[in-house]
UniProtKB/TrEMBL annotation:
Any one Gene Ontology cellular component term annotated for this protein: endoplasmic reticulum membrane
Recorded family membership: Belongs to the LRRC8 family.
Name of the protein in its database record: Volume-regulated anion channel subunit LRRC8E
Pfam families documented for this protein: LRR_1, LRR_8, Pannexin_like
Main location class: membrane
Amino acid sequence: MIPVAEFKQFTEQQPAFKVLKPWWDVLAEYLTVAMLMIGVFGCTLQVTQDKIICLPSHELRENLSEAPCQQLLPRGVSEEMGGLREVSGLKNNLDLQQYSFINQLCYETALHWYAKYFPYLVVIHTLMFMVCTSFWFKFPGTSSKIEHFTSILGKCFDSPWTTRALSEVSGENHKGAAAGRATATMEASAGPGKASEGEKEKVLVEPEKVVTEPPALTLLDKKEGEQAKALFEKVKKFRMHVEEGDILYTMYIRQTVLKVCKFFAILVYNLVYVENISFLVACRVETSEVTGYASFCCNHTKAHLFSKLAFCYISFVCVYGLTCLYTLYWLFHRPLKEYSFRSVREETGMGDIPDVKNDFAFMLHLIDQYDSLYSKRFAVFLSEVSESRLKQLNLNHEWTPEKLRQKLQRNARGQLELTLCMLPGLPDTVFELSEVEALRLEAICDITFPPGLSQLVNLQELSLLHSPARLPFSLQIFLRDRLKVIRVKCEELREVPLWVFGLRGLEELHLEGLFPPELARAATLESLRELKQLKVLSLRSNASKVPASVTDVAGHLQRLSLHNDGARLLALNSLKKLAALRELELVACGLERIPHAIFSLGALQELDLKDNHLRSIEEILSFQHCRKLVTLRLWHNQIAYVPEHVRKLRGLEQLYLSHNKLETLPSQLGMCSGLRLLDISHNGLRSLPPELGLLQNLQHLALSYNALEALPDELFFCRKLRTLLLGYNHLSQLSPQVGALRALSRLELKGNRLEALPEELGNCAGLKKAGLLVEDTLYEGLPAEVREKLEEE
C-alpha cells in the first residue's frame, strides 16, 4: 500500500505562497490530487491482487491459428463467427506451479503494455504535472524572490501603519465629500426665487448635520513606527532588485507551456491506447513440452476497473488541460510585465504611488487574482507621501515638546534659540514651543513648513543651513512682517528659496553658497527690492564682483559683508552707491590693494579687510575722506610696513594689524590720538617707537607673539591702559613704571625671558591674580604683600 502522504513533498509549499496561486492553479492542484488518487488506487490493486488468470486451450494444433478464447465469447457473437464448440468438463492435468508460471508468462508477453502499466503511467504523469506547477516555487532563482515578496507582503498587510494611512485618506475623502455636498446645497439655495434669511441660515447649517465622522486613527507606538520605517526600506530595496529582471514571468510561462504540451501528448496517446484494456486476452507460448499446451485463454482481472479509471483519468486530464489553456490566454492577452496603481491612486488619494514593471508587476497581477486588497495595502509602502508621514510620526514620537524645551538656549543676541541638526525631518512638536525666538535648522532635508508655523508668534530669526525649505503662501504672509533675521547656507546660491526675497520686514539677510562656474563672473542674485527694511547683508560665495542687486537696498543698507573664500573680487565700483553703509567687510576677497571705491563711503564707520593679500597700504591716506571711520581691521594680510601718513587718521579708535609682516612701526602712529585699541600681535616687531606714549586714550594694546626685547618707558604714560598683552616676546625685564598703570586689569607676560616681576605691580589697583597671566614661578617670586593685594576680591 502506497500512502498519498508520500507524494506530499512534490506539492508542499509555504502557506504564504498561496497568495501567488490564482484560481486556475488551485483547481489544477485539486485535479492533480484526484489523478494521483486514481494512479495510487490502480497501483495498489496491481500489487495486492492477481494481475491475470490463464486456462489452457484444447484446440487441435492445426487450428492454432484461430483465437483460443473465442469459445468464451457471448453466444450471439460466437454464432456469427461460426458456432461454439463445447469443451466443458475437461481436465487440464496442470498443478498450481504450472498455472502460476503460465499466468506470469502470459502477463509479460500477451498483455498490452498500456493495460499493464496504466496505473504507473497515471502516477508518473501526475507527478510531472505537480513538478511543473510548483517548480517556480522551488527553483533557487525564483523561490528566493517569492519568499522575500510574500514575507514583505504579509508584514505590509498586517502593519498598523497601513491601517492608519488608509484611515487618514478615508478621513480626507469624507471631508471632501462633505464639502462637496455643502457646496451643492448652497448652489441649490441660490436658485430662482428669493429665500428668506431664516431659510438661508437653515441651508447653511444642514450640511453640517450630514457630515459623517472620519474613522478613528489608530495610534502607533514607537516600536510599530520603527517597524513600518524598516518596511519602507525593505520595499524600496526589493523593488529595485526585482524590477531589474523578468525571471519569474518567464519561468511561469515556460512551465505553463510545458504543461499544455504534456496535456496534448497524454491526451492523444491515452485516447489511442485506452481500447487495449480488454477483459479476455489470447496467449500463445511454446510451453507444450512443459505443460502440454501452447495456447491459453487469459482473463485480465482489472480490465473492467482500469477502463473505468481510464475514462475518469482522461476526463480529469481534459479539465486540467483547459485550465492550462486558460492560463496561457491570461498570460498573453494583456501585458503582465506592467502594473498600474491607477485605481489605487484614485481610491486612496495617494497620487505618488508609482507603477511597477517586470517581475514585480507580474507578482502583483497574481496577487489581484487572489485578493486585490493585498495590492492596495502594499501600495501604501510604495508611496513617498506615506513614507514622509510615517517619518513625521516617528519624529513626533521621538521629539516631544518636553525634550525640545531642554534644547532651548540663549544665543549671542540673547534670544531663546532652538537648534535641530541632522534630523530626517522637522518635528511638528517644534511649533508647540511658542516661546521660541530663533530657530536654527541644520542638515535637515526637504522641509515643508506646516500651518503650525503660525503658532511661533515670537519667531524673529530663522537659520536654514543645508536645509532646503518650502513655505506655503499663507505662511509667507505670516512671516513677511514678523521675521527679522534669516540665514541660508546651501551648496549653490541658486538653491536659496525664492520666498526669502519676499520677506519685506527682514532686517538681516545672511547667504552662504557658491555661484556655479558659469554664473560666478556675472554674480547674479535675486532682486532685493522687496526688502525695504534690510540693514545687514552678508554674502559668502565665490563672486567675481559685487552682485548688482545689492544696489536695490543701497538707500538703507548699513552693513555689507562679502566673504569670498579666496576668490578674487574684481569689480567693486558698485560700492560707491552704498551711501548709507556704516560697516563693510571684504574678507578673503583676494585684494592686493585697498579698493578706491571704499573711500567714497562717507558714512563708513568700520572696515574689515581680513585674509586678503595686502602688501602695501599707501592708500591709507585716503581714509581721511571717511571722516566717520573709527575701526580699521587690516589683520591677516602680508603688510610689511605702515606709512607715515597714518597720522592723518586722527579719528580712528581701533586699529587691527595683527598677523602681518611688520618689523617696525612709524613714530607718526603716536599722533593717532583717538586710538583706544591697537592690535599688533603676531608680527616681527623688535622695538616700539617711544611716541606710542602719546596715545593717551589707549585702553587695549596687544603686542603678543613678536620679538620685543624691551619696552620704552614712555609706553607707561598711557594711563588709561586696561589691557596689555606682552606674551611670547623676548623681554628680559619689566619696567617698574608699570605701577603707574592704575587702570590695568589684564596683563599677559607668559613666554618671555623674565627672571622677576617688579613689586610695583601692587600699585596697579585694577589688576588681580586672575588678570595676571604669568608663569607660576614668577608669581611666587613677588613679595607676599603684593600677592595679597592681587588676591584680594
